[in-house]
Automatic annotation (TrEMBL):
GO molecular function: polygalacturonase activity
Lineage, opening ranks: Eukaryota, Viridiplantae, Streptophyta, Embryophyta, Tracheophyta
Organism: Linum tenue
Protein name: Polygalacturonase
A GO BP annotation: carbohydrate metabolic process
Pfam families given in the database record: Glyco_hydro_28
Keyword flag Cell membrane: no
Family, similarity comment: Belongs to the glycosyl hydrolase 28 family.
UniProt signal peptide: 1-31
Main subcellular localisation: secreted
Keywords carried by this UniProt record: Cell wall, Glycosidase, Hydrolase, Secreted, Signal
Top-rank taxon, per record: Eukaryota
Locations listed in the record: Secreted, Cell wall
Length: 480
C-alpha cells in the first residue's frame, strides 16, 4: 500500500473508514433492535403489575407440541403476584396446543391477534374429569361427571381473558363424533368455564369449534362478556354461545355468534337439583347481539331454569336464519321461575318462530323430579320489533293449570313467509295483552287498541350495577 500514490491511499483509506463506520452503525442498529421494547394497550376491568410471556415457560407455538405443562407452570408462577398487583400472561403469535388449564385470581390471559390456542386431542389425560355441577346433579351428555373446560377456574376474584381478537379453537369435531356415537362417559368440555367467581371479563376473542358450550360462567357475579365472535357449524351438537348459569349482574354485548344451538342460553339448574341449590340468574343485560342458528334460539331462557331467572334485559338484537327469536323452555318438574323479562328493538330475518314459549320441554335429569314442581312464568315483555320471512309468528304453550301470565307484546310487525303456516299464532294456557301487533295475535292475548295501553310493555329505566363498571386502559411491554 506504501507504493501507491498518496492521493489514492487517502481515497482508499477513506473508503475503508466509510465501510467500517457503516459496519459499526449496522451493529449498533442491531444492538438497539435486540433491546427494543414494544408495547400495546387494551381495555380491561383491572390492569396488572407483573407480566410474562408463555414462551418464558418453554412453550412452542408450532401447533404440534403440547404446551399444557407450560401453561400450568406459567399460571402457577404468576399466581404468586395475586396479592401484589396481579399478573398477566401474554400468548404471542403462533399455534399453541394445550389441554385444560386453570387460571388464578387477579390474573389476565391475553392472546395476540395471531395467537391460536388449540385444544389438544392427543392425550385424554390432559382433560381432568370434574364432578357434576351441584345444580344439575349429573352431566349433560352422560350421567357421570364432566371434562374440565379448556380454560377453567373456580373460587376466583378478578379474572380477565381477552386479546386482540386472538383465537381459541376447540377442535370440536373429535368430540362431536364421540357424542354422536354415544361413546362419551363424561360430558364434553367447554371452552371457558369459571365457577364461584366474582369480577370476570371475557372479551375481544374469536372462539371456534367448541366441543360443547363456548362460554359458561356459573355461580358467579359481576361478569362482562364483550366483543366475542363465536363460530361453529350450525349442525354441531350443543355448541351454545354464551350460557350465564346461576349468575348475578352480567353484561353480554357486541357479540357475533354462529352456532349449532342457542346463541345465548340463560340457565339456573336442572329439576330437583336446581331447586335445592336455589341460585337464580338475575340482573342480566344482553345488547347488540347478532345470531345465526337455524336449529335453535337467539336467546333461550331455560330449559334448566329450576333456580329461577329474573330481570333479563335484551335490546338491539339481530337474528338471521335462526329458528326462534326469544324462546322460553320449561316443563312440569322444573319448578323455579322466569319473570321480569324485557326485550326491545329486535330485528329478525328468516325465522321459524318469532316467539316460542313451551311448558312441555322434557329432558329430565333423572326420574326423581317432583311432578308437583311447577314453574312460574310471568311478566314477559316484548316491544318494538320487526321480522320478515317468518314461518309462524308465535307458538305459545303454557302448562294446564299453570298458565304463563302477564305477557305483553307491543309495536311488533311480523312479515310472513310465502309458505307460512295458515294460522300464524297458536296459544294455550297463556294470558296477557298486545298493542300494535301484526298479524293479529291469538284471543288469549287481546289487542288493546291505539292509545289504550299506556305502559306499552315498558323497558326498565334504571341501570344495573354491571353498567356502572368502568374499564381501564392497560398496557403490556414486549421484549424482543
Amino acid at each position: 500500500m506504501d507504493s501507491l500514490p498518496i492521493k489514492f491511499q487517502v481515497k482508499k483509506n477513506g473508503v475503508w473508514m466509510l465501510l467500517l463506520l457503516a459496519a459499526l452503525m449496522a451493529a449498533s442498529t442491531e444492538s438497539r433492535k435486540a433491546k427494543v421494547v414494544d408495547s400495546f394497550e387494551y381495555i380491561a376491568m383491572n390492569c396488572r403489575a407483573h407480566s410474562a410471556s408463555i414462551t418464558e415457560f418453554g412453550a412452542v407455538g408450532d401447533g404440534k407440541t403440547s404446551n399444557t405443562k407450560a401453561f400450568k407452570d406459567a399460571v402457577d408462577h404468576l399466581g404468586q403476584f395475586s396479592s401484589d398487583g396481579g399478573s398477566q400472561l401474554y400468548v404471542p403469535a403462533g399455534k399453541w396446543l394445550t389441554g385444560s388449564f386453570s387460571v388464578v385470581s387477579h390474573f389476565t390471559l391475553f392472546l395476540h391477534q395471531d395467537a391460536v390456542l388449540l385444544a389438544s386431542q392427543v392425550d385424554i389425560n390432559e382433560w381432568p374429569v370434574l364432578k357434576a355441577l351441584p345444580s344439575y346433579g349429573r352431566g349433560r351428555d352422560a350421567a357421570g361427571g364432566r371434562f374440565a373446560s379448556l380454560i377453567f377456574g373456580t373460587n376466583l376474584t378478578d379474572v380477565i381473558i381477552t386479546g386482540e381478537n386472538g383465537t381459541v379453537d376447540g377442535q370440536g369435531a373429535f368430540w362431536w363424533q364421540q357424542f354422536h356415537k354415544g361413546k362419551l362417559k363424561y360430558t364434553r368440555p367447554y371452552l371457558i368455564e369459571l365457577m364461584f367467581s366474582d369480577g370476570i371479563q371475557i372479551s375481544n376473542l374469536t372462539l371456534l369449534n367448541s366441543p360443547s358450550w363456548n362460554v359458561h360462567p356459573v355461580y358467579s357475579s359481576n361478569i362482562l362478556v364483550k366483543g366475542i365472535t363465536i363460530l361453529a357449524p350450525v349442525t354441531s351438537p350443543n355448541t351454545d354461545g354464551i350460557n350465564p348459569d346461576s349468575c348475578t349482574n352480567t353484561r353480554i354485548e357486541d357479540c357475533y355468534i354462529v352456532s349449532g344451538d342457542d346463541c345465548v342460553a340463560v340457565k339456573s339448574g336442572w329439576d330437583e337439583y336446581g331447586i335445592a341449590f336455589g341460585m337464580p340468574t338475575k340482573q342480566l343485560v344482553i345488547r347488540r347481539l347478532t345470531c345465526i342458528s337455524p336449529y335453535s334460539a337467539t336467546i333461550a331462557l331455560g330449559s334448566e331454569m329450576s333456580g329461577g331467572i329474573q330481570d333479563v334485559r335484551a335490546e338491539d338484537i339481530t337474528a338471521v336464519h335462526t329458528e326462534s327469536g326469544v324462546r322460553i323452555k320449561t316443563a312440569v318438574g322444573r319448578g323455579g321461575f322466569v319473570k321480569d323479562i324485557y326485550v326491545r328493538r329486535m330485528t329478525m330475518h328468516t325465522m321459524k318462530w318469532a316467539f316460542w314459549m313451551t311448558g312441555n320441554y322434557g329432558s329430565h335429569a333423572d326420574k326423581n323430579y317432583d311432578p308437583n314442581a311447577l314453574p312460574v312464568i310471568q311478566n314477559i315483555n316484548y316491544r318494538d320489533m320487526a321480522a320478515d320471512n317468518v314461518s309462524m309468528a308465535a307458538r305459545l304453550e303454557g302448562i294446564a293449570g299453570d298458565p304463563f301470565t302477564q305477557i305483553c307484546i307491543s309495536n311488533v310487525t311480523i312479515g310472513m313467509a310465502a309458505k307460512a303456516k295458515k294460522v300464524p299464532w297458536t296459544c294455550s294456557d297463556v294470558g296477557g295483552i298486545t298493542a300494535g301487533v301484526s298479524p293479529r295475535p291469538c284471543d288469549l292475548l287481546p289487542e288493546q287498541g291505539p292509545g289504550k295501553m299506556e305502559e306499552g310493555c315498558n323497558f326498565p329505566t334504571e341501570t344495573l350495577p354491571i353498567d356502572s363498571v368502568e374499564l381501564k386502559t392497560c398496557s403490556y411491554k414486549i421484549n424482543y
